[in-house]
Amino acid sequence: MASQLKVDTLTGVTTAGSIVVTGEGNSTTTNLQQGLCKHWISVDMSSAAVLDSFNAGSITDNGTGDFTNTITSVMSNDDYSNTIGSLYVAAWGQIGFFRTNTARTTALYRTGSVNYHNNGNATDSPQFDTQINGDLA
Amino acid sequence: MASILRVNTLTDASSNNSVPMATVNQGTAKSWADFTMASTPSANDSFNLASITDVATGKAGLVVTSVFANTNYSVQGNSNGTANDDFNSTVGLGLKCNFNVSTSTSTYEFSIYAGSYVDAIHNYSNAHGDLA
């Protein structure tokens, strides 16, 4: 029978922050909280504008191809998986990366964008996308 | 008391933001990791990761605990350092981050190449797909 559950908050019974979901093949399980993306943001570095986002606070334009992004509901530690996509513009050879000269924290991380075909010069990406998988505080 | 809820759709109390359980299943990451290749590869934090094998210099095998249903899963990730702690020293070399998921439902290979294969310090990956 088809069913619909109306609820504003899901909480585990045994452990509040852990809900098990059966996998697509019906033989294994996954953890709902662990699998949820905790933060994503799409930034136009040229205009320093947030195109769209989830659980994102402010962005800071530190210079060409150099941004600091903040997280609203912070992570529990700085060992989160932080992945990138940078819009490829013809002949630019765009590369996105995370800067380590400012250590990331539970509340912020610093990104960089360079032009691979021009000796790695800093370049503002017109769409710089990042996301985080990890543990919320 | 532990319980199982069998439901097809989740929606908020105002009947907005409805999401089918199939979307919950398909849309959640099945594995993610923050790991280093330096010395003995190890994870700083992870989800659904059993172990990391040192395949070769610059190549790590990430072994998941709950395996995928097939080898057609999607892996993405990046690395922000090679032998050093600062990406800037490697930009000119053209850091390449690649994956190989074609051979196993339980292991995907993560490789970092910058002129030659190098053990990167900061690596981040996540995998979406169908669990077995």
The chain-level structural class of chain B is: mainly beta
Number of strands of chain A: 12
Question: What is the mean pLDDT of chain B?
Answer: 84
Largest interface: A-B, 49 and 52 residues
What is the number of helical segments of chain B per DSSP (H or I, 4+ residues)? 1
What is the count of DSSP helices of chain A, taking H or I runs of 4+ residues? 1
What is the global morphology of chain A?
elongated
Number of E-state strands of chain B: 10
Distance between the termini of chain B: 27 Å
The shape of chain B, in one word, is elongated
Unreliable spans of chain A: none
Report the mean per-residue pLDDT of chain A as an integer.
88
Provide the β-strand percentage band of chain A: over 45%
Can you tag this structure with a few keywords?
heterodimer, A: about 140 residues, mainly beta, four-stranded antiparallel β-sheet, about 5% helix, elongated, B: about 130 residues
Report on the structure:
- The complex is a heterodimer of chains A (137) and B (132).
- With 137 residues, chain A is mostly beta strands.
- Helices cover 3% and strands 45% of the residues of chain A.
- Chain A has 1 helix and 12 strands; from the N terminus they run βββαβββββββββ.
- Chain A is elongated and about 60 Å long.
- In chain B, strands 4-3-10-7 form a 4-stranded antiparallel sheet, with no helix packed on it. Chain B has a 4-stranded antiparallel sheet with strand order 5-6-9-8, with no helix packed on it.
- Helix content of chain B is 5%, strand content 42%.
- In chain B, a hairpin with a 7-residue loop joins strand 1 and strand 2.
- By secondary structure, chain B is mainly β.
- Chain B has one domain.
- The interface between A and B is large, with 49 and 52 residues.
- Strand 1 of chain A pairs parallel with strand 1 (9-11) of chain B, so a sheet runs across the interface.
